[in-house]
Design a protein that fits this description.
heterodimer, A: 315 residues, 79% helix, 0% strand, globular, B: 271 residues, mainly alpha, disordered C terminus, membrane (chain A), MetI-like_sf (chain A)
Chain lengths: 315, 271
Amino acid sequence: MLRYTLKRLLSLFLSLAVASLVIFFVIEVAPGDPASFMLGINAQPDTVAALRAELGLDVPKWQRYLDWVGGMLAGDFGTSYTYRTPVADMIGERLWVSLPLALYALTLSTLIAFPAGIYAASRRGKPGDIAVMGATQLGVAIPNFWFAMMLVLVFAINLHWFSAGGFAGWDAGLWAGMRSLTLPAISLALPQAAILARVMRSSLLDILGEDFMRTARAKGLSRRQALWRHGVRNALIPVLTIIGLQFSFLLAGSIIIEQVFYLPGLGRLVFQSISSRDLIVVESVVMLLVFSVITVNFIVDLAYALVDPRLRSRT
Amino acid sequence: MNRNLLLGGLLSSLFVLAALLSFVWTPFDHAAMDIPAKLKPPQAPHWFGTDHFGRDMFSMIMVGARTSLAVAFIAVGIGMAIGVPLGLTAAARKGSWLDEVIMRANDLVFAFPSLVIAILITAVFGAGAINAIIAIGIFNIPVFARITRSAALSLWERDFILAARVAGKSSTRISLEHILPNVTNLLIVQGTIQFSLGILAEAGLSYVGLGAQPPTPSWGRMLADAQTMVSFAPHLALIPGLAIILTVLGLNLMGDGLRDHLDPRLRVSRT
């Protein structure tokens, strides 16, 4: 297990290093110098040069790359070109919206998908199964931002149960914050729940065909006992991987959903930064998203190997 | 012919036909504004109603189908054109450093969701439909590379490949003449799934302004425009949304049907 962990850890660092290189140099080829953009076309060359020096744009590229990576490792993401505030603070503030939203959606999608998938698998081929599978087929076809608009139309505009957008802030209390995140979380969770329910069902069906399930029934367990004690537990392993993958997609998906609900999260920060050419913010947010994908996958891999020792020998 | 394939095929071809027809005929000019007739609910002669500029929604949906289908189709093409050769190469040289490099690079690309790729590209080159194609195309590459490699690996163990090697064929020729034809069915099925995912991704990107730009009509942009008017003109949001759902549903059903039709033993990852 130690050998496996070290090997995976090495590849984790390698991936992060290559990803940061790719992100930095893709952004660096962007036409347009942030300093001349900020000062407008009539700026004097020496003013531009002074601002370039102030923003640290006058040192060689590789030097800036090393500063950027070194800074991030120390928790310093640089200073925003437009707001002149530390990028880490801006991201930190927005993360308090995006991260709870993604976790909320992940919880909802798991709560919906597990019972639905288990129910469908235990009634394979019967009307209940067909109904669940039909619903999931529809669920994966619905764009989450469109579903969000429909939720706003029904629950905010017509029924007034929730507000149509905006974020109450955590200062207004946990309940107020959760309430403004509820519709966004439901709309994010729906397509993910559909996928997860399908995975849960097919994984459980694979297990139900195993010999040990027959043994469990033969030794006198009821169908229900065998399903829960031996079926669901074993079926959870592949489902874990999908949940891990989903977390990163939820974080990325929240960027779109934030636009529907005017939530002050990472998504809005990125779009504002793109239009004001505040590239250091774009760079850092993208790196953060990619970092979260790679790290979550690493954790899932480790958890997987911990549960299933057969995986440690393969890599 | 199974039911999924029939139903899915019919639904998808409906939208493909609408897109093709829009090149020669639409009920109205999709860009023609008619302010007095703005925000009309669905009724004759505007079967899907009109938007806030009085443009005919039916015509806009037809032209928008062009954008959605073209972006998703080319993105699948990019994914296959690059991913399949990579997968074949990795499988032919299983365990070599080349295999390792290809698979690690795949993992790396996989860590960039298509939305993040689109954000990067837009930050550099500005927004446009081309960005959406590139972003979704790049996202598709590792999907095809992985599926090709794993299918090819099991084929390399088979006796007919051994026979081809004994006959003196090079691994490149074996890959092209024996492996590729045997993974085609799998690629068609996965291609259908990536096509439907591409349509969803394109809609999302255009919705947040990273995809097709005005005046090019696209379903995602129509939804973005509809957002502030959804309370008094819900048809503006309902109709493009239903167009997306039906297209994606049709393609997914077709994918399921094709899988059962081409090879019932095939099991393609749906996630």
